Fold these 4 entries.
Entry 1:
Amino acid sequence: MVASRKAVMAEESAAKKKEAWEKLEEGIVIHGIVRRLTDFGAFVDVGGVDGLIHITDLSWGRIKHPSEVVKPNQEVDVKILSLDKERERIQLGYKQLQPRPWDNATEKYPEGAIVEGKVVRITEFGAFVELEPGLDGLVHISQCALNRVAKVEDAVQVGQPARVKVLSVDPEKKRISLSIRQVLEEEAFDAIPEAEFELVTEVEETTEA
């Protein structure tokens, strides 16, 4: 009796799995539930079978762990990127259903705007500042500080928050040019007391007279 029950349950499970696989097609969007997280991705139950969202397909930006984007038991919509029925492997995409950061970069970060970001990478020629996940801009070494610096590290460090001014945006080339120096210059200008401006005006008027 025990053996018969196990056999029946195994047949039912196999039948459900076969039915689930028959509903899956590459390219479709399907609803699922996050079951398990690993360092390399998230396993999602999509109607009785599990698929994997690799960590690179969770977010347009860089993340260190899937828990930064999804949690166990969270319901999600995912896109089926590939199917391997023989090996019973399903590759899923989550970021593919999210807005691409560059699609509206020009509207969100217009030229002249001052925005908040975080320094995420430093090179010999400048610092890359993350404005949002998947959207980084470059602060050239000449724009990193009020005074000339020999190394970018003399002005900024990785992980440091940064207020930057948008100099230009090129969505096609996926390039944003930023400036820390111009923000500092404007802040310094705004910090000058009004009395000093009045004094300068008086001196100019006296000179003209």
Note: The chain has two domains: 16-97, 101-190.
Entry 2:
Amino acid sequence: MKVFINPGHAMHGNPDPGALNGELGYRESDVVSRIGEKVKLYLERAGCEVRLLQSHNLLGECPDYGPAIVDAAESFGADVFISLHCNAFDTRARGCETLCYDDEEAGGALAMAIHRQLIETMRDKDGSMPDRGIKERKDLAVLRATNMPAVLCEIAFIDNIQDAALLIVYEDDIARAIARGVTDYQVALAG
């Protein structure tokens, strides 16, 4: 299986670091970059061919900031597309959610497989971690414009102290969970 991983926002946070936790000094772009590298490693160990690209340029609208994400995924011939993000809202909101274009299509099955592993892992580390579920988002470019099953994982709320601590302390466990979700999806396809 060919897996395309897109850690959200701009590489090194320039020009867009994504969501921030000013109190702890965490930037979404940095957190998801580290998690993405580990997901790549675990998927390669599982026999997947993986490409990872972090770029501010999603559909070709910002060519000065790197390759277009959607074009790169298409030219790679990816079987699945995974975008990694951290949520932010009001410093009190918490939880994990996984987004897909249409939960009745293959992207929904991929979302379910990854989300199940993420929630199990996050709740193992913090029993109060809210499950915000799987949500359809037809407005997101990386879900709308890709031709392969695609998901966007909002792993946790980086602006919430409790969630942010989980993101940092358990980034390896989170990466393993995402990789297991992809291989669970692969097994379900083969079965």
Note: The chain has a mean pLDDT of 96.
Entry 3:
Amino acid sequence: MPAPTPLRIDFVSDVSCPWCAIGLAALEQALERLDGIVQPQIHLQPFELNPQMSAEGEDATEHLMRKYGIDEAQVDANRAVIRERAAALGFAFNMRRGSRVYNTFDAHRLLH
């Protein structure tokens, strides 16, 4: 059997993005199915979803409504989809009303 082919993957994400966590988990599951075929080298790259966000952050529901022009029902529906997708990948997201969104620059700096 030939040696696995090296595969560099640059995964660009924000540490606070639930869709990024879901995407990484899905990627890891897909790569498991390619075990022995490819030799993945995942390189995590930083991306700030909200670089203009102040240090104190803001209410997540209000932020999402304003950012995407949606109402509370749509925010709740989106959160339900995120929870379902995460559960299908084997982990839980505990998003709720009253949670906050923050600037993640310092988190990215710490990881670097």
Note: The longest strand covers residues 5-13.
Entry 4:
Amino acid sequence: MEEAGQAGRLNESKEKISMQMENRREFIFRFGVIAPLLVAGCGVRGTAQTSVLKLLKANAVSEQLEWNGAKDVPDTVSWRSVLPQSPGAERMIISGTVFESDRKTVAPEVLIYFYHTDAEGYYGRNGEPRHGRFRGWLLTGKDGRYEIETIRPAAYPSRRAAAHIHMTVTTLKEKEHWIDEIQFEGDPLISESYRRKTEGRGRFNPIVKLLKGTDGIWRGAVDIAL
């Protein structure tokens, strides 16, 4: 009886080892088939974006002016940009959709360059780029979406203008150009002339109402019409 029991346990052990080996062979086979496809897929997407960025850079303003920045776009760009934290600053997320001029058709492959002041109202200082650390690039996908996670900027120390985010857009058809800056509803420095100008253009309102979440992050939505 004992010998029969040992034989049974030995058979069970052999079956387990056999199943493990079979599962391992199946995993290796599937990985060997799928992995090259995944790598190839990433390569296709990367190549496509590289081609698009090359065309967009051709429409960037090449001169070193005060406002432009599309020419400095990195090799890889996402529809979302996350900028670093800064001591004493509050986090903020601005998101929206880029549309064609009809404000209905979403606009893919639009390059957005943005920049804003730090928590004390300054741009580049202490050897930083002229627009400072708080700048970035976004490339809209098929849905036209974009999202910026950054700090909430401060007004200039002179208090001559409301806190804002500067943005330029570059498309495959149009050269880089400056669009209305994003300002924040409730800022006492928002001028009536700016409010009237943006209301009278028939585009989306660039003055955003921010709401603070339970996580302490300010959020607002701003759509853009080309």
Note: Residues 2-58 form the longest helix (57 residues).
